[in-house]
Amino acid sequence: MSVFSRLAEQKIEEAVRNGELDNLPFAGKKLPIDDLSHLPEDMRMSYRIMKNAGYVPEEVTLRKECVQLYDLLGAARNEGEQDQLRRKLNEKQLRLQLLLEQRGLSANSAFAQYETQVRDRLTREE
Q: Are 66 and 92 in contact (CB under 8 A)?
């Protein structure tokens, strides 16, 4: 064990003894899983930093907007409103497809797994 690891362990033990960690949000509970295993290892840290900063990649935002527009389209009553929503949905889908192709994500097998998970989460939230 390195000097830094031992020092960190000592500081953690001291904080536990002093009760400094008792009021943390997940005290006594399991931490939520932040599974980024579907991403290449060299991209995980940057995604985690962006996520913690509240940044959502544009493709995720576009997918969520597509799901919302699709739901609105199903609830639309008149034909004019449906046409307007269809146009917006088509624009978002086209933008998403172009973005995925530009980033090389459309043929990436890791992204295919990620895409399914995002789609599942978006449809569950709505």
A: yes
Per-residue pLDDT in tens (0 to 9) along the chain, 126 residues: 688 889 999 999 999 899 888 888 887 788 777 667 767 788 788 888 888 888 877 888 888 899 899 889 888 889 999 999 999 999 999 998 888 788 776 655 666 666 667 666 766 654
Give me the residue label for tokens 């269809």. Answer: 86
Yes or no: say if 118 and 60 are a contact pair by the CB < 8 Å rule.
yes
* Three-class DSSP category at 19: coil
Categorise residue 56: left if φ over 0, alpha if ψ from -120 to 50, beta otherwise.
Answer: beta
Q: What letter would DSSP give residue 29?
A: S
Maximum distance among all alpha carbons in the chain?
70
Q: Is the dihedral of CA 107, 108, 112, 117 positive or negative?
A: negative
